[in-house]
Specification:
This protein is mainly alpha-helical. It has a domain of 45 residues. Helices cover 50% and strands 3% of the residues. It is built from 15 helices and four strands. α7 runs antiparallel to α8, α9 packs antiparallel against α10 and α9 runs parallel beside α11. It is globular, with a radius of gyration of 21 Å.
């Protein structure tokens, strides 16, 4: 931090809490936001144009997650995991923020294709390799833990027995619960990625602690919270990026039906009760979707029929 302050002189300063750097004045931000990275200016490298910065941030986070240390064995011990985060303090940010950077970069576009930028595409496809690598499982476990249990980085290191219980619960559910890249992509609403993972994939009906891929797409990020609670942890419902991309999830439900996903596989909630997929769709309240094909064997009306009644 001191080195950056030395070289950037009066352009940046320490934040009020002293734990991060910020631009010294709004005019600096205004200038950098308007500066195109293709302008030819000697300062173009420092452009804060979101079309330039957000993909770069996403690529940086994803590249970091694929480092060799994170591609070996999954750290399952709580104390060892904390030490890993201390050694690599950027990891928690990379784990939780790359989807934010990707989705912010597609905000307002007619097609929110997260794979439209080639360097980011390559990184995402590597992380979500269908072979379910250690890098993917480590990310999926840590994303669930950081986003749904300890939303503040400092909370992770608090001496709280519940945090340890939550960590064990998440590790068990994600790493030993049959969760695949397809489940996570469907749950997060990444339609283009989910579509690719579906190509030639025989696992479209695979059950996991999150349900089947179509159940993940219907329920979205809050299913992670339910799963965590079922494993003895304490998850939180999040109103933020956990349920992003509702449109992507809806489109993926349609695609899964087209490729032959079994809509009659019952969903089991944390109490052990089972529900049909059509009832699941109704309770999830996903709007703007016909769900015309989601009719269960008990002749329960589809979500679309109920919305039109």
């Amino acid at each position: 931090m001191e080195v950056i302050l030395l070289h950037c002189s009066s352009l940046v300063r320490k934040s009020a809490y002293g734990n991060r750097l910020e631009l010294a004045h709004f005019t600096v931000q205004e200038y950098l936001m308007k500066l195109s990275h293709e302008s030819g200016s000697p300062f173009a490298l420092y452009s804060q144009d979101e079309d330039y910065v957000l993909p770069l941030l996403a690529e940086t986070c994803l590249t970091y997650l694929m480092f060799e240390e994170f591609s070996l064995d999954i750290v399952e011990d709580w104390d060892n995991w904390k030490q890993q985060q201390i050694r690599h303090p950027f990891r928690c940010h990379a784990v939780s923020k790359w989807p934010v950077y990707v989705l912010k970069n597609t905000y307002g576009l007619e097609s929110r294709d997260m794979l439209r930028i080639k360097p980011v595409q390559e990184c995402i496809l590597q992380l979500f390799d269908p072979s379910k690598t250690a890098s993917f499982l480590s990310w999926a476990r840590d994303y669930t833990f950081v986003e749904f249990v300890s939303r503040k980085y400092d909370e992770i290191f608090e001496e709280d027995e519940n945090v340890n219980v939550n960590f064990i619960a998440v590790t068990k559910a994600i790493c030993m619960g049959g969760v695949t890249p397809l489940h996570m992509a469907a749950l997060m609403g990444f339609y283009e990625l989910s579509s690719r993972l579906c190509e030639g994939n025989s696992l479209v009906n695979q059950m996991s602690t999150l349900g089947t891929p179509i159940q993940c797409a219907i329920l979205g990020g809050n299913q992670l919270c339910s799963m965590l609670n079922a494993q003895g942890g304490n998850g939180r419902l999040l109103p933020t990026y956990s349920n992003l991309m509702v449109d992507g999830r809806v489109k993926f439900v349609d695609l899964l039906i087209e490729v032959g996903a079994n809509i009659h596989i019952p969903f089991k909630d944390i109490t052990g009760r089972t529900y049909s997929t059509s009832i699941l769709a109704l309770s999830a309240s996903i709007s703007n979707h016909t769900f015309g094909d989601l009719m269960n064997e008990s002749n329960t009306p589809s979500y679309y029929s109920l919305k039109q009644a």
